[in-house]
Amino acid sequence: MEVIELVGTIRERMQTLRCSGKRIGFVPTMGALHEGHLQLLRASAQENDVTVCSIFVNPTQFNNPDDYKLYPRTMEQDIALLESVGCDILFAPHAEEVYVQQPLLQFSFGPLETVMEGEHRPGHFNGVATIVGKLFHFVQPHRAYFGQKDLQQVAIVKQLVQTLSFDVELVRYPTIREADGLAMSSRNKRLDPEQRQIAPVLHHALQLAKEQLGQKPVYSIKATVEAYLAGTGQVELEYFEVADPDTLQPLQEVGPQQEVALCIAAFVGSVRLIDNILVNLNEG
Ligand SMILES: Nc1ncnc2c1ncn2[C@@H]1O[C@H](COP(=O)(O)OP(=O)(O)OP(=O)(O)O)[C@@H](O)[C@H]1O
Ligand SMILES: CC(C)(CO)[C@@H](O)C(=O)[O-]
Ligand code: BAL
């Protein structure tokens, strides 16, 4: 695997590959790789001629300085994992070069950024859109792979691609979970053993809500989830929403034919985790 750190070098390399007719698959990450990332990379390796992974803990998308400081960084182990799944190129740029020009562009994603992650992490999606846009320019992928775990991020990137006319096909990959249901996430590495044991309650709460969908009104389902998590005594709920899976806008009512996204964010100790599931009521 080639490891490239400089923007000029990745641009040149990708230009050459594109000119020789190679199809480029791209998996942007912040590192501390786990099986969720590896599945995205395997899908890319299968569906493209060349797979590029980026590892960059992007400072502009962190609204909480401690979260940035404590974000797990495991570069040596990441390189070994990338080699094990046949990744061709790792792009690991430096913040000084990525953010050489200031100030940052301000994006506007309308209603998408006023709910859930947008509401609770001010500036987060502006940082995500900025870095994803830059990475798309550097890597020039034909396809880019994103996880459903960050469902709202996928919608933001989709809007970014449409608004700025990037010629990139987006692939949304299902959430990969631990055996006990916990969605894999780099931040799981920050959980102590007791917190790790309790963390699957986020997923359990989503399952509980799913069972009640179509039977009970949305406000009552929300109350059930709140009471369930409060009962654990160790998890602080930030939000639970029943949302439209495309617009991510909260739904007050759910129709019999509807597909909905059940989305949750909660603190386990000082670690903030998110999760979601998609439910199609039509499928019984
Ligand atoms: N469990 C998972 N299943 C599928 N895709 C995932 C999973 N976890 C992360 N991804 C995807 O991998 C890409 C890189 O994510 P990132 O590096 O932020 O990792 P992460 O595990 O989401 O970390 P964290 O949530 O702690 O920031 C994103 O598109 C993300 O949605
Ligand atoms: C897409 C991304 C790599 C941008 O920094 C990040 O938000 C992530 O890892 O999901
Ligand atoms: N996986 C989303 C990136 C973030 O939480 O900042």
Automatic annotation (TrEMBL):
<feature type="binding site">
    <location>
        <begin position="147"/>
        <end position="150"/>
    </location>
    <ligand>
        <name>ATP</name>
    </ligand>
</feature>
<keyword id="KW-0963">Cytoplasm</keyword>
<feature type="binding site">
    <location>
        <position position="61"/>
    </location>
    <ligand>
        <name>(R)-pantoate</name>
    </ligand>
</feature>
<dbReference type="GO" id="GO:0005524">
    <property type="term" value="F:ATP binding"/>
</dbReference>
<dbReference type="InterPro" id="IPR004821">
    <property type="entry name" value="Cyt_trans-like"/>
</dbReference>
<feature type="binding site">
    <location>
        <begin position="30"/>
        <end position="37"/>
    </location>
    <ligand>
        <name>ATP</name>
    </ligand>
</feature>
<feature type="binding site">
    <location>
        <begin position="184"/>
        <end position="187"/>
    </location>
    <ligand>
        <name>ATP</name>
    </ligand>
</feature>
<dbReference type="GO" id="GO:0005829">
    <property type="term" value="C:cytosol"/>
</dbReference>
<dbReference type="InterPro" id="IPR003721">
    <property type="entry name" value="Pantoate_ligase"/>
</dbReference>
<comment type="pathway">
    <text>Cofactor biosynthesis; (R)-pantothenate biosynthesis; (R)-pantothenate from (R)-pantoate and beta-alanine: step 1/1.</text>
</comment>
<comment type="function">
    <text>Catalyzes the condensation of pantoate with beta-alanine in an ATP-dependent reaction via a pantoyl-adenylate intermediate.</text>
</comment>
<keyword id="KW-0067">ATP-binding</keyword>
<keyword id="KW-0436">Ligase</keyword>
<dbReference type="InterPro" id="IPR014729">
    <property type="entry name" value="Rossmann-like_a/b/a_fold"/>
</dbReference>
<dbReference type="GO" id="GO:0004592">
    <property type="term" value="F:pantoate-beta-alanine ligase activity"/>
</dbReference>
<comment type="subunit">
    <text>Homodimer.</text>
</comment>
<feature type="active site" description="Proton donor">
    <location>
        <position position="37"/>
    </location>
</feature>
<dbReference type="Pfam" id="PF02569">
    <property type="entry name" value="Pantoate_ligase"/>
</dbReference>
<keyword id="KW-0566">Pantothenate biosynthesis</keyword>
<dbReference type="InterPro" id="IPR042176">
    <property type="entry name" value="Pantoate_ligase_C"/>
</dbReference>
<protein>
    <recommendedName>
        <fullName>Pantothenate synthetase</fullName>
        <ecNumber>6.3.2.1</ecNumber>
    </recommendedName>
</protein>
<dbReference type="GO" id="GO:0015940">
    <property type="term" value="P:pantothenate biosynthetic process"/>
</dbReference>
<feature type="binding site">
    <location>
        <position position="61"/>
    </location>
    <ligand>
        <name>beta-alanine</name>
    </ligand>
</feature>
<feature type="binding site">
    <location>
        <position position="153"/>
    </location>
    <ligand>
        <name>(R)-pantoate</name>
    </ligand>
</feature>
<keyword id="KW-0547">Nucleotide-binding</keyword>
<comment type="similarity">
    <text>Belongs to the pantothenate synthetase family.</text>
</comment>
<feature type="binding site">
    <location>
        <position position="176"/>
    </location>
    <ligand>
        <name>ATP</name>
    </ligand>
</feature>
